[in-house]
Amino acid sequence: MKGDTISLQSKKDLLIVHFGLRYACSNRMRELSRLLISVRKMMENENMALKDILHPKYFDNVISPVRNIAGIDAFKKII
Asked: Which domain of life is it from (predicted)?
């Protein structure tokens, strides 16, 4: 993996590390890290872990960053 902020977050989050050990795929780990970084920025909480955002109460807070990462515009319905 490249040595950037996304890979650094991948190495710091325990759930992403376990995911990488089970499924050796750095691209998926980077995607999870991008999601985590986006949710942290949106919620203004740098201490959140991936396992924290999987809680149902954060569902709405996760959907918006997922749409942004995927390039989906909910209003224009353009991918």
From this structure: Eukaryota
Specify the length of the chain in residues: 79
Please calculate the CA angle 49-61-26 and round it to the nearest 5 degrees: 45
Q: Can you read off the two tokens belonging to residue 10? A: 């991948």
**CA gap 39, 52 in Å, rounded:** 11
DSSP 8-state class, residue 20: H
Compute the radius of gyration of the chain from its Cα atoms. Answer: 13
Give the global pTM. 0.72
pLDDT at 7: 85
Q: What pLDDT score does 74 carry?
A: 66
Domain ranges of the chain: 5-70
Nearest to 32 by CA among 57, 14, 46: 14
Backbone angles phi, psi at 5, to 5 degrees: -65, -30
